[in-house]
Amino acid sequence: MRMYDLLEKKKHGGALSGEEIRFMIDGYTKGTIPDYQMSAMTMAIYFQGMTDQETGDLTLAMRDSGAALDLSGIKGIKVDKHSTGGVGDKVSLALAPLVSSVGVKVAKMSGRGLGHTGGTIDKLESIPGFSTELTMEQFIRQVDGIGMAIMGQTAELAPADKKLYALRDVTATVDQLSLIASSVMSKKLAAGADAIVLDVKCGSGAFMRDFDGAQALAKEMVKIGKHAGRKTWAYITDMDQPLGYAVGNAIEVIEALDTLRGGGPADFRKLILTLGARMTVLGGVAADFDSACALLEKQLDSGKALQQMARFVQAQGGDPSYVLEEGKLKPAANTLAVKADRNGYIGAIDCAEVGMASLLLGGGREKKEDVIDTAVGLRLHKKCTDAVQEGDVLAELYYNDGQKAAEARARLQAAFHITEKAPEAHHIILGEVEG
Ligand code: URA
Predict the structure, then answer these.
(1) Are strands 106-110 and 148-152 parallel, antiparallel or unpaired?
(2) Which residue has a Cα nearest atom 8 of ligand 1?
């Protein structure tokens, strides 16, 4: 078999066989197929697409490119969650302690941020002492003991995806349905959970900008999950404006902690209750969605979810007083405001640009090796549909470097679109694909 022939076939819109896909993924993982041929293939796939069969075969080939986790030593149903990535997406920080506080077992591997989207691992590392570097043995022992653990993704898990994702990132081929579906699901299948809840983001800060594309992606991933014998359920959620008000690292942890204390932004609370209720049902802890939702609301409002967060932070070497003492975790001390230049309504917020402003402050990475500043970030004061008067503060930047702050401020100012008429209200949950 030759990669050249597979390129010819895909270039003309042909469907690759399972055997051809395995040959390609094995060769790329081992390095016998070079980046330039794989780049040509991802671009051919971008234009020609893949059939469901090809997408499924690609997922399984990537899943099998490394070691799969064996979570069978952990008692109970293990439930995983994955987001396709967004701005201000602090869901895992609050969701994992929330659902594990009612007995759902959460064994989660998470990533770092790249580009305008943040990563759970970076956010958690803004808590002093917290470590996401666990051995597999520690990880499994912790899930069995306190019901949850979050660690950085190991190099052995779906290495083909790791390599291919890095290549797609620099060849403008990330936003292709089959490539995203196979990338997400290969990791989820290798990570070993029995059930998977997917948060498929849709809008200006997501890879899928329109609802139809996000729904098609959600359907594809649910199909792959079910085919592989995992209970899989997807929600399509709004990413046309940042989730909640906080964007950054420490500042997002602070917002997640407020929410675990029973407060927090309404859109964020609604999202974690929705995803959490589904995880609770799939995890066999509640009989139906509504009773699961009521159970989780109680955990938030009684402080039990916050206590579970403190237990989790302590188990991974962090100082739990940063969780329990409100106001102890702080963002950078210097602030700069972005103000409205006219009267009107917030008609739209360019979500990717808000993410870029946080990155420019030093809160994200342009290159993998970049070191981030977890204290910097921004807090929106206004969101879509809010009325504003000239001079109102739209957002506040928290910074450590004045030059970076000036650049980020200009970017953030341009991200807000003020209109004369109020736009239609945004809903956080846009749709769902049942498993
Ligand atoms: N998240 C992933 O894990 N993979 C993609 O391709 C896109 C988002």
Answers:
(1) parallel
(2) 84
* 304 catalytically annotated: no
Q: Which two tokens stand for residue 408?
A: 């980020």
Q: 207 pLDDT band (50/70/90 cuts)?
A: confident
CB 142 within 8 A of CB 115: no
> Does this model's pTM top 0.85?
yes
Q: Which of 22, 116, 163, 168 is catalytic?
A: 168
**Residue owning tokens 């780049």:** 39
Q: CA-CA distance, 232 to 225, in Å (whole number)?
A: 6
Residue pair 183/264 in contact by the 8 Å Cβ criterion:
no
% of the chain exceeding 70 in pLDDT:
99
Q: Based on the residue annotation, tell me whether 187 is a catalytic residue of this protein.
A: yes
- The domains found in the chain, sorted by start residue, are 3-49 (1.20.970.10), 79-325 (3.40.1030.10), 334-419 (3.90.1170.30)
CA–CA separation, 25 vs 155, rounded Å? 16
CB 217 within 8 Å of CB 84: yes
DSSP helix/strand/coil, 419: strand
Q: How far away, in angstroms, is 176 Cα from ligand 1 center? A: 10
pLDDT at residue 110, as a whole number: 87
Closest by alpha carbon to 380, among 366, 367, 393, 391? 393
Q: Looking at residue 27, what DSSP letter applies?
A: H
Contact status, residue 15 vs residue 53, Cβ threshold 8 Å: yes
Round the CA-based radius of gyration of the chain to a whole number and report it: 21
